[in-house]
Amino acid sequence: MTQYIRPRKKMTMTALKNIRIVLIEPSHPGNIGATARSMKTMGLENLYLVRPKRFPNKEANTLAAAAEDVLTRAHVLEDASEAIQDCQYIFGTTSRRRSDNWKIVTPRECAQKLFTSKYTAKSAILFGRESSGLTNQELDLCSYLIHIPANPEYMSLNLASAVQVVSYELYLASLQLKAKHTMPKQDIADSSETEFLYEHFEQVLSNIGFLNTKNPAKLMRKLRKMLNRRSLTKEEVQILRGILASIQKNVK
Length: 252
Fold this sequence. Notes:
Blueprint: H1 9-16, E1 19-24, H2 29-41, E2 46-50, H3 58-64, H4 68-72, E3 75-77, H5 80-84, E4 89-93, E5 104-105, H6 107-115, E6 123-127, H7 136-139, E7 144-146, H8 159-174, H9 191-207, H10 216-228, H11 234-251
Parallel strand pairs: 1-2, 1-6, 2-3, 4-6, 4-7, 5-7
Helix pairs in contact: 2-3, 2-8, 6-8, 9-11
């Protein structure tokens, strides 16, 4: 007999409230509505839209069915960095495996990273354009990339389906949270703090002549990936910035 896991509603909902789904430049309003429906069925309610082509839109409301409240509360922004600036974990979705040292996880592994610890930090999951996905600049914002395993002969998942798969894994993992967990806050640096760190690195590396001024993005992308392999705490960011400031002072 299959054992039924009764959701611990308060714990589950609290954890899921810290996760946001970010759609970047969705072109079809129907996909926005279907995404809202996928989210609500799995207990997610934070929808962020970056430069949607058509929103608000009647088609979005129709496809949302009984999840129109998710659309009503949706945040509409002009830049992906705005959607994640206070987040501590950022995942980006990709339809193909990338060879450039990206840390690739499945939706299940993503959920395990977020829910097997004793807390759940503010997190964002980025979904790219229906036709072209996320740009390299948007991928640079991410700590991990999510790849959904599928039939190699036909790997075409539409946007709302991809959101549904990821949302299901998040909800399933959230049910496993033990009631004794008090979810204490861990002092992880958020996206805005790490972005200032990367800007500081680029400035200092340019000043000391270490950075190739003709193609600075190449080294900075590798540096981002190296530091994104672990979640830097606020204290670690401050230490690194203190070192950089000292280098600047001595160079002058």
